[in-house]
Amino acid sequence: MSLGKHLLGIKDLTKEDITLILDTAEKMSEISFRPIKKVPALRGKLVVNLFFEPSTRTRSSFEIAEKRLSAESLNFSSGTSSVLKGETLLDTVLNIERMNPDAYIMRHSSPGSCKLITEYVKGSVINAGDGASEHPTQALLDALTIRQKKGSFEKLKVLICGDIAHSRVVRSNIHLLKKMGADVTLCGPATMIPPYIEKMGVKVETNFEKALSQKDVVMMLRIQLERQEKILFPSLKEYFLTYGLTEKRLKLADKNCIVMHPGPINRGVEMASEVADSKESVILDQVENGVSIRMAVLFLLLQGGENEDSN
Amino acid sequence: MKIVIKNGRVVDPQNGVDETLDILISNGKILSVDKKISVSKEVEVFDATGMIVAPGFIDLHCHLREPGYERKETIESGLLAALYGGFTAVCPMANTNPVNDNAGITNFILETAKKVSKIKVYPVGALSKGQKGEELANYAEMKEAGIWAVSDDGNPVMNSALLRRSLEYAGSLGLTVIDHPEDKNLSEGGSMNEGEVSTRLGLKGIPAEAELIHIRRDTALSNLTNESIHIAHISSKYSVESIRVAKKRKIKATADVTPHHFSLKDELVETFDTNYKMNPPLRTEEDIEKLIEGLNDGTIDCIATDHAPHAYEDKMVEFDRAANGIIGFQTAVPLAIEKLVLKDKISLKRMVDAFSSSPARIIGLKDKGHLSAGASADLTIFSLRKETFLKKEDIKSLSKNSPFLNKKIKGAVMAVVIDGNLFRLREK
Question: What CA–CA distance (Å, rounded) separates A143 from A153?
């Protein structure tokens, strides 16, 4: 196994690493459906959930994964911590380090922040989102969902639509989907498409209807209401008019197309309610897979893949 | 006290000299430059065999941080670093605390410098009061105290009317205006070059156009007022082209480039090492090529360090929150040697000119930047063959923020002479 000590981004993984994580997650998924949803795999390990940015989904999903593997969790968020008193990231981490944790799950608004702390800690660092850089476990849970629905990634036509420039989900997904052989198209108003993104091996199509044509997977991104002042588009209404996924537009995609979203969704902004609740929507499957992926990642990094049968 | 610098390869671009000569110095002036000057025993001899002897190097752009930011640098530590870097004169920017926008601060800087160092200091005053970009600072009183130029440097002037008035008013007092070209609306929130790398890393980029737009404005206003403007630390190919065009039209614009902008490219930011974070940001291979081309053909007049000391805690943070800039005094000369001269990108003569004659001309120093008899006895003596390898303890600055720590660079400063005072900086 070439999986390293940390999971900072999909960029550093091989196709084999990704497949191993997906396979492990698949095996672990049944734990969540046992009467007693717990295995002792990470008993005695301390995992710190270090969230400097708000998160509901990712954070609770990691916490549940830690609990199902019997790890101890310490929750730390910027709202309740000494960060508010002016402590730097490194000082915060150096303090926690003396509590001897085995892993840090970190979310932070600055790209590269997870890499920064790896030089100061003994344990593993798992990136739960660093600015607009990467969000590897999101891309992995997306991949698991796609694999379950589509079987394989080879030649799969994937469309990602929304605020590409500010999205860490997009970057991790591009790395992953390209490594697995899928064909990726990005869509959104040009104000949300960063320059030179084509150099990452993707196509760009700003016309949503054209972009939807023949797609097997359509991934819609959350439009961040708080970014409105950044003059990226005039109004939410206008956004929905041009880039909102409606039932009518969805018909332009392949007839077996699935609809994904990293959540939380804005109904009536990036997608119509009927689409969010449609049979094509796999948004809630993604949430469920999130727990399995995070169990797999924690298990592989903290157990080094040994002792696979944790029963 | 007389000194003779013997057997060095004397490079004096202004006088068209490049040959092995001796230089005799007396009472702070150059007495003669000749072949085999014979001297009596009481004359101090510096054997410069195998070395280059050039007019003293002048840095047009640095930050000495005092008053106000003494944990980053003091005038004393900064000037010591400048000395070890081979500089005989430096121009500190006005973004101290309080800002150098009045004669009191200018006097403080000059008096402190005089006490702690032989290096000549030519301060740059603030362009606007408090560098706030609102109203003109008191140029006349600062001029009397000793400034030669005004600039808001890191707080680029966004108000074009203010810049116009500054050019006019400074011009009537014989002061030069220096602009840091950056459209702050376009660059807002950016922490590296906007391009393939910023997109991949998810870091907000600063497009080269943010610089270009202000250079076009600056040269247009220079043309309107017929006053000279110096454009600081240009970083992109578009900027070089724009200044080339302005110069062809006889607009009184000059420009400089820093050693890091012609040595380092934006891909290095992939390491997230905050020592690669500067403003303007490091750009691409192609930009580097065009910057060097511009330096070679004189579009870019000189090399300036933009020496920007920052304390450990200012840099040991997340990349997008880190302070901009690196220290530059002790690496400038070796970087120019390794990246430009030894690679045959520019001639030794042009390098010496970019470090001495050109800055002297821009400041308006008649007795510096050349080695004519009667000129100030300011010399920079360096080797093309020796190497520079700086460990933390070799850095004379209080701050150690350099991406060149523990790295070998070809070329080394051996000695400097300032006003006839010889400083031997390195064992042969």
Answer: 9
- Residue B17, burial from CB neighbour count under 10 angstroms (0-12, 13-18, 19+): middle
Active site residue B306: yes
Residue B196 contacts A, CB cutoff 8 Å: yes
A 177-196: CB under 8 A from B = 194-196
Measured between alpha carbons, how far is A163 from B362 in angstroms, rounded to an integer?
47
Q: For B337, which DSSP code? A: I
Whether chain B has a CB inside 8 Å of the CB on A67: the answer is no
Instruction: Specify the domain boundaries for CATH 3.20.20.140 within chain B.
Output: 57-363
Contact assessment for residue A80 and residue A108, using Cβ atoms and an 8 Å cutoff: no
Whole-angstrom distance, CA of residue A207 vs CA of residue A159: 12
- Using the Cβ of B259 and the Cβ atoms of chain A, whether some distance falls under 8 Å is answered with no
Q: State whether residue B323 is helix, strand or coil.
A: coil
d(CA A163, CA A103): 31
**Whether pLDDT at B201 is above 70:** yes
> Do the chains contact at B319 and A133, CB–CB below 8 Å?
no
Compare CB distances from B202 to A88, A116, A132 and report the shortest one's residue: A132
Catalytic residue among B22, B152, B306, B353: B306
**Residue in the structure block whose two tokens are 């050109």:** B358
Q: How far apart are CA B108 and CA B106, in angstroms?
A: 5
DSSP state of A215: -
Predicted pLDDT of residue B230: 98
Q: Report whether A105 contacts A126 (CB < 8 A).
A: yes
Q: How far apart are CA A102 and CA A125, in angstroms?
A: 9
Distance CA A264, CA B270 (A): 30
- Distance (Å, rounded) from C-alpha B14 to C-alpha B372? 9
Contact (CB<8Å) A133/B201: yes
Structure tokens that stand for A148 in this block: 């379950």
Contact: A88, B313; criterion CB under 8 Å = yes
User: Mutating which of A78, A83, A113 best tests the B interface, going by the most B Cβ atoms within 10 A?
Assistant: A113
For an interface test with B, give the residue of A133, A134, A229 to mutate (most B CBs within 10 A).
A133
Q: In angstroms, what separates the C-alpha of A167 from chain B's closest C-alpha?
A: 8
The first and second tokens of residue B233, run together, are 């630390």
Q: Could you tell me which of A265, A304, A244, A282 has the C-alpha nearest to residue A143?
A: A282
Q: What is the pLDDT along chain A (311 residues), one digit of tens a residue?
A: 468 899 999 999 999 999 999 999 999 999 999 999 999 999 999 999 999 988 889 999 999 999 999 999 999 887 666 666 778 899 999 999 999 999 999 999 999 999 999 999 999 999 999 999 999 999 999 999 999 999 999 999 999 999 999 999 999 999 999 999 999 999 999 999 999 999 999 999 999 999 999 999 999 999 877 665 567 888 888 999 999 999 999 999 999 999 999 999 999 999 999 999 999 999 999 999 999 999 999 999 998 644 444 43
Burial (CB < 10 A; 0-12, 13-18, 19+), residue B233, is: buried
- State whether B203 and A168 contact (CB < 8 Å): no
Q: What ipTM score was computed for the predicted complex, to two decimals? A: 0.91
Is the domain defined by B57-363 classed in CATH 3.20.20.140? yes
B390 contacts B84 by C-beta, under 8 angstroms = no
Burial of A235 (C-beta count, 10 Å sphere; 0-12/13-18/19+)? exposed
A132 in helix, strand or coil?
A: coil
Rounded-to-integer distance, Cα A205 and Cα A219, Å: 14
Looking at chain B, which residues constitute the CATH 2.30.40.10 domain(s)?
3-52+376-424
Best CATH choice for the domain B3-52+376-424 from the list 3.30.750.24, 2.30.40.10, 3.30.70.980, 3.40.50.2000:
2.30.40.10
Q: Rounded mean pLDDT of B213-238?
A: 98
